[in-house]
Each structure stands twice: as C-alpha cells, then as structure tokens.
Amino acid sequence: MPAPAARLIYHPRREFRRFDCTAVYFDTPSGNQDPYLWNDAFLHSYCHITQFHAEPGDINLWVSGDRFPEFSSLYCDLVFVVASKCRWKNANQLSPDDPLVDSREARADHYRWYPQHRLTRRSRYTLKADPGQSFQPQDASGALIDILPCLAEYGITLDSLRAGMRAGTGSQPMTIPVPAGEAITQALSHAPITLHGAELRRVRLHHPELQSPDEETPSGTRSSPGAHSARCGC
Fold this sequence. Notes:
There is one protein chain. Helix content is 21%, strand content 25%. The relative contact order is 0.23. It is of the alpha+beta class. The protein starts with 5 loop residues before the first strand and ends with a helix. Strands 1, 4, 5, 6, 7, 9 and 12 form a 7-stranded mixed beta sheet that branches. The chain has a two-stranded antiparallel ribbon with strand order 2-3.
C-alpha cells in the first residue's frame, strides 16, 4: 500500500448557518453536496477527485480563501482523513439499496448526483472519512481558522500556495509534506470547537430543509459536467 499523502483542496466559500448553538459551514443544498458533512463518516465522490490518487490514511484538508487565486488567508473548513476508498460497481449508476449508500439522506444529498460527473474511462470511488479523526474546526466564536501560519512553519510560502493550487481559471489539489498535514491536523484537533460527523448528522435529521432538490439537478434536467465544475472549481 502506498504511503499516506497530505493535500490541500481549494473550493469556493461554503454557506454558513447557525443551528441553535451549532454553527456550520457546509456545501449549498441547492445541488450535489460534496464533500458531504451530514454523515457519521464524511463522504467525497466528485469534486476534484479525479485530480489526485487517494488511499486510506491520506489527509485531505479542504480550504477556501478570501479571494482566488490571490488569497491572503486560507481557512480550513474540513479535516478529512481517509478511512476507506469504496469502488462503485458502475461508475455512472448507483442503486438506492447499494451497500455503499450510508443513509437515505446521504443518497438524496450526495450519491444520486453522479449524472453531473459522468465518467467514461475511469472507475468511480467514494472516499469515506475516519469519523474520529475528521472534523470541522472553528475558533471559540465559530469562525474558521487560517492555516497559513502553520504552513509557513514548514516552508510552504504564500506564493507557492497561490501557484500550486491554481489550474487555469480554477483550482486544483496541492500535495503538501505529510508532516505539515499531520501538524495542521493535530493543531486543529485542539481548536475550541470541532464538529464531527455524528453531531452533524443529527443536525441534518432535525432540518429537512437541508435536503438537496428532488430532481437530479435543480432544473430537473441533467447538467453537463462543466456546469458543476464551474461552480465548485473542479
């Protein structure tokens, strides 16, 4: 098995909402939600996933900035430590009762959106996060935490980040040294607030308005992969 890797995955800023005393940054429920937070094990099946080779043990840090590509802050909204890499039997079809599907909510919000990301030659995988090691870190006020200072301690400069995560007009995942990924994960695990999947799943169960639309796409027709890619920066 390959040695674990660590990477930064840049995406547009998430939605923000407070649910009673719990503040959450999450993907818009207007379409496919990826990575999917409202599950005991976070899920990742689509966005940027064909741009890197993932294996169990990898540390994927999902980040966003104040602007792209000339960001001056880099906020981590999800520490995703890969626990398993689950291959789909058919890259462009998934039955609701497939053992891969974690719950009815995960099916509605995440799994059934594969028509937006059709594959012709590649296999499709879903990455499932380690529930104990994966979380959304926040400071005491509920704000996301800037990880640029920690990256700088490992010699990863702002200029190298701006260049490494840029791909044309969009973004691409950037590999970082594993010790840097481990140090950031360890530091963020001591944040005043860490939201794990089990807590977030309870939020989803009490808030049905977080469900993605009934149609395969918001318009009721299949969208092209490019349309979704422009939204998520894939």
